[in-house]
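Practice problem 4.
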């Protein structure tokens, strides 16, 4: 992410009304707006020229945003080239009222 700091990239993403990417489907590709499916986004610097995102994305049969699709959307709306060095899913969450809870919480079991 040369020329842009991580806070600027995050701000640019969160301030967008729409982030259109091409999503592969069984019948080909279609335009897909991932912005409403980015629930939370933070990030920081690991050191040197290495940065990280902490992202809460929609996952499911209907509205699924793979991390690679998220990165494509960030690249598109910020005109940045991002190289994924590693990716780690920390937890799956579900919405209970106005809160996000881990899926292994008793409210979901």
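Answer key:
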């Amino acid at each position: 992410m040369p020329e842009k700091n991580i806070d600027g990239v995050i701000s640019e993403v969160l301030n967008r009304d729409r982030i259109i990417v091409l999503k592969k489907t069984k019948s080909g590709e279609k335009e897909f707006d991932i912005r409403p499916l980015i629930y939370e986004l933070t990030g920081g610097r690991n050191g040197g020229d290495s940065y990280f995102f902490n992202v809460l994305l929609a996952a499911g049969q209907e509205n699924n945003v793979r991390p690679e699709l998220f990165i494509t959307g960030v690249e598109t709306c910020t005109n940045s080239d991002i190289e994924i060095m590693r990716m780690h899913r920390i937890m799956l969450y579900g919405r209970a009222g106005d809160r996000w809870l881990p899926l292994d919480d008793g409210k979901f079991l």
